[in-house]
């Protein structure tokens, strides 16, 4: 844990790229939290890059390809140096025409098919970091990573990434091909990776890109407005668990105000202080949210701040799983 300001660049793994100390998670530009403005999404992506962000994280199933095409529109004609931008793509989520999630498919033949479509939608010749979105129970991780390794040899992918897998799966994948980073949820409300997963990453020299650092807006006091917002189906936002968590968020808000930060800045700064070698992914979908997040860079938390905050919100304070019961069952990281 560091008392210094977050580094402006962080190395992803032993052989991966150096990236800006905040990454931009792009999922929210494609309707997961309700209706969005494409124009503001494009403006936000461009503003993030102009302020130094070099890592853009997407998934081929975000908006059934919409997210990748939005990123393409944001990058086209702007004169950005492609070598200075890293595009991370999660793949393999199968969706129905109505948007429902069906399953994952990580067979080698499917991996190469998904990559071909992502390259076309993004309008790029190579994907910087390619990662299975979830572990496929029907396909050994060795086969999936082997397919990505083939794509690397062919020049279509640069680095292997993983997402939401546990320690044993990380070891098996890394034995096939060096893994650059694991993408996993981590926040004041979701500290599970600290026990088993982060130690393995450090042992093997693998980095992490951390999403859900605001626990989908919970830590900043946001609430789902209607059923189109998938948070309305998450345990942490509803019922007795939701009411309990609101009381914790009120304490966080008071701490943030006393320290001259917004609740979002406090949540991001805590992640940066706890895991300075890893990269927080900021899910800003508007220019205002991006401005708020960037305020963290000049307001790092001290060791004393972290201790005081964790005294208010000890491990296990929040109630409710981070996904629905069906989704939790598919998380290898939770086993």
From TrEMBL:
The record's keywords, sorted A to Z, are: Oxidoreductase
Any idea where the NADP-dependent oxidoreductase domain is? 22-312
Q: Which residues form a coiled coil?
A: none
InterPro entries according to UniProt = Aldo-Keto_reductase (IPR050791), NAD(P)_OxRdtase_dom_sf (IPR036812), NADP_OxRdtase_dom (IPR023210)
Q: What is this protein called?
A: Aldo/keto reductase
Source organism: Pendulispora rubella
The upper taxonomy is: Bacteria, Pseudomonadati, Myxococcota, Myxococcia, Myxococcales
């Amino acid at each position: 844990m560091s008392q210094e300001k977050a580094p402006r660049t962080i190395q992803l793994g032993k052989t991966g790229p150096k990236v800006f100390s905040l990454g931009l998670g792009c999922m929210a530009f494609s309707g997961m939290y309700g209706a969005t403005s494409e124009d503001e999404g494009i403006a936000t992506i461009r503003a993030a890059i102009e302020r130094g962000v070099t890592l853009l994280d997407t998934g081929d199933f975000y908006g059934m390809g919409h997210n990748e095409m939005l990123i393409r529109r944001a990058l086209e004609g702007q004169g950005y140096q492609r070598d200075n931008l890293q595009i991370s793509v999660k793949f393999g989520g199968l969706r129905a025409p109505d948007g429902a999630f069906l399953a994952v498919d990580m067979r080698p033949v499917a991996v190469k098919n998904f990559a071909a479509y992502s390259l076309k939608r993004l309008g790029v010749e190579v994907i910087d970091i390619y990662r299975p979105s979830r572990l496929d129970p029907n396909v050994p991780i060795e086969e999936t990573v082997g397919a990505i390794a083939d794509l690397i040899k062919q020049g279509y992918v640069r680095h292997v990434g993983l997402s939401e897998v546990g320690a044993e799966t990380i070891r098996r994948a890394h034995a096939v091909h060096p893994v650059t980073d694991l993408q996993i949820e981590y926040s004041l409300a979701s500290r599970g990776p600290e026990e088993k997963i982060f130690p393995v990453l450090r042992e093997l020299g693998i980095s992490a890109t951390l999403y859900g650092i605001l626990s989908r807006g919970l830590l900043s006091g946001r609430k789902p407005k209607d059923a189109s917002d998938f948070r309305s189906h998450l345990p942490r936002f509803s019922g007795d668990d939701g009411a309990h968590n609101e009381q914790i968020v009120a304490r966080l808000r008071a701490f943030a105000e006393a320290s001259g930060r917004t609740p979002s800045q406090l949540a991001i700064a805590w992640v940066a202080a706890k895991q300075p070698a890893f990269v927080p992914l900021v899910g800003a979908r508007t220019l205002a949210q991006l401005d708020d997040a960037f305020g963290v860079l000049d307001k790092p938390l001290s060791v004393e701040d972290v201790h005081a905050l964790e005294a208010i919100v000890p491990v296990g304070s929040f109630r409710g799983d981070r996904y629905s019961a069906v989704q939790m069952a598919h998380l290898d990281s939770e086993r």
